[in-house]
Amino acid sequence: MSRTPAVELAPGVFRIPTTPGDYVNVFAFRDDDGQVTLVDCGYFTAPGRILAALRFIGSDPSDVTRILLTHAHGDHAGGLARLRRITGARIAVHGLEAGNVRSGRPPAVERLTLFARLVKLLPGDTWTPSEVDEELTDGQVVDVAGGLRVVHTPGHTPGHVALLHQPSGVLLTGDSLFNWRGRMSLPSLTYCADARLTERSAYALGELEYDVVGFTHGPEIRERAREAVRGFLRERGAGRRG
């Protein structure tokens, strides 16, 4: 569990825990000129922690010039409207989910179970609508801290993306993979738009090259990160065949 407002993953790359137990994380990238890009915004309660983390790393809200969303769910977009008002940052999300960000409503799930229906009644499933300034595409390299590559990983949501920071070798999985309580897993199907695509996208992450893997749910893996991800996927595949 993190005890500081921000955890440095690599020079200029920070994880910001926004809930106890590292359950929901936001990330910050700081350029050499001081500009900051945030990845995700947490729940609607998260902006206070995010602003505190910015102060902790020596940045100001006015330094935030861009906010990228991995996908349009309330635990990632909940704080977006408030942070946009405070920072004036431009908002970017994959084109398939720009409409969701603008409406403040998440994409449909594949299996609308009773539990899923109950979840949708809780505060935080929706968010204050926000304008989108840029629609991201697969393979795009965003001009962030030397290059942040967009990896379209559909399944959890149609426009879900992972992000690979090429200079530092840090991969942000978004919700393609969780590392909750020290155990890697796929996201709950309760929240997934397409279960089969979710699994395929997780396996695609095992083929990328990276040194550190950061999770939006759970702490990062620093040592042999790619091997850890691939090991989890191998075990999952073996379990399915067994």
UniProtKB/TrEMBL annotation:
Keyword Manganese: no
Gene3D superfamilies in UniProt: Ribonuclease Z/Hydroxyacylglutathione hydrolase-like
Cellular component terms (Gene Ontology): periplasmic space
CDD domains: yflN-like_MBL-fold
EC category: hydrolase
Catalysis performed (reactions): a beta-lactam + H2O = a substituted beta-amino acid
EC numbers: 3.5.2.6
Name by which UniProt lists this protein: beta-lactamase
The organism of origin for this protein: Micromonospora viridifaciens
Lineage: Bacteria, Bacillati, Actinomycetota, Actinomycetes, Micromonosporales
